[in-house]
């Protein structure tokens, strides 16, 4: 490998994968919910934040909607 590379003649271009990058967000979740996903993380070896992301992505892809009725 060279000790020095000349990048002055390179043409820059935007990252084509920018739309696939994750966006950081802050969410407030119940302790029980976090404990559930952390236990799943221990079983599967997948980080719990990735498991939450996978679950939410599955809901979005399959157009699942929460059906709740408040007791009156």
UniProtKB/TrEMBL annotation:
Top-level taxon of the source organism: Bacteria
Name used for this protein in its record: Antitoxin
């Amino acid at each position: 490998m060279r000790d020095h590379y000349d990048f002055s003649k390179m043409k820059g271009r935007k990252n084509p994968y920018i739309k696939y990058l994750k966006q950081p967000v802050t969410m407030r979740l119940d302790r029980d919910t976090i404990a559930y996903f952390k236990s799943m993380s221990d079983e599967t070896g997948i980080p719990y934040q990735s498991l939450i992301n996978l679950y939410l992505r599955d809901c979005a892809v399959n157009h699942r909607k929460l059906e709740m009725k408040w007791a009156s």
